[in-house]
Amino acid sequence: MGLNLNPFTWWNGATLGTIIGLRGKARVGDDALGNVYYEGGKDTAGNPRRWVIYEGSNDASRIAPEWFSWLHHQVDDIPSRAMPAPRPWQKDPLPNMTGTALAYRPSGALEKGGHRAPATGDYEAWTPDA
What is the pLDDT of residue 8? Predict the structure, then answer.
């Protein structure tokens, strides 16, 4: 039988303290990844406070760009009203793939055999004019 550590761990989503602290705050929306966004109260500069509660592990690269803009006060209204419609050629954002099998590995990486193409010969080392 496993122990439910979610109320006490920040890496699995919102802690119990965060959930209690969001009482009375307005839920303004969610994104395609399941993250939920809240707004309420004022910070010390008088700007509205904004939060994200992640669906799953807390990874800042899992926030959609339009919601990132909203969180950082680059746009005033929620993204569905403030941002233009996405262009057909735009790709969906990807989370950070570092540490996964889908991470970028150049041809000289150890995971790809550790061999890279030889130099092309157009490099000339600098030597001092002593």
Answer: 57
